Amino acid sequence: MDTTSFTRKTIGAETVEPALTPPPMGGLQASFAKKPKIGLAKAKSKKRDIPEGIWTKCEKCETMIFDKELDENLKVCPKCEYHFQIGARERIHSLVETCTFEEMDADMTSVDPLKFVDKIPYPVRVQQHQKATLLKDAVLTGLCKIGPHRAALGVMDFSFIAASLGSVVGEKLTRLIERATEKELPLIVISASGGARMQEGAFSLMQMAKTSAALAYHAQRRLPFISVLTDPTTGGVTASFASLGDLILAEPGAMIGFAGPRVIKDTMKADLPPGFQTAEFLLDHGLIDSIVPRKEMKARLIGYLDYLTAAKKAVA
Length: 316
Prior knowledge:
With 316 residues, the chain is α/β, with parallel strands linked by helices. It has helices spanning 38-49, 67-72, 88-95, 122-133, 167-183, 202-220, 235-238, 261-268, 279-284, 297-308, 310-315, and strands at 55-57, 64-66, 102-104, 139-146, 149-156, 187-193, 225-233, 247-250, 290-291.
């Protein structure tokens, strides 16, 4: 018969399992792993949860601006007065009387006479911008009412291929000028452009002469032309109709010039003065007549039209 053996256990002599955290030794405190900062983690998660399209960072003072406040302020920073670029329809809405803008040549669109291809074919590029901006080309033209004045208005939109001067832009502006001449109306053109449209080659450069010739006939009838330069206005637009106004206005801080600073510096082999292509510099040197903040533009245009049309009204 098998005998079962037992092991006697002494009370207090049981094997002690090691603790998860060893006891302090030598009077030294045990070191613990640092706990994550819950507040910081929550802040980071909240920052990620903010949806896009609600806040805009000012490019000048870097202030975060609520988009609704920015829109109500006509895309002008409430802190530093930096003027953001604005679309053609937004600008028209800020200037003309309600429901008085009668658009001209709304369906005119570009063709591809040179069969031009860079990264993509030119017609595809035009279609992409038409879809993104809901515009047919880079300018909106039409007759409208600004205050008590009936006027012809053209507004360029930089978001459409940098508002480059192509055949459609030149033709629409020329027709607008001719309509203003025919109806004896004052003319206002608000420019913003990167220059001639390279995809149309010489056809683009022809628009400089065409618009300037139409303005000459408008001037012969002693009708006022107000040119408003916004950021940026460069290249062939600056070299043609944008600089031919009886009165040339500009928005604060607008970049205005023909070629870029690097090209000018390499050509002249000389250092250029700081800010030489800003509206403020050009005002000091006589190229423009006045700098008008966007929020004051409508009131100032009405005042200028009152003055420039006073003699005609007196004769009538």
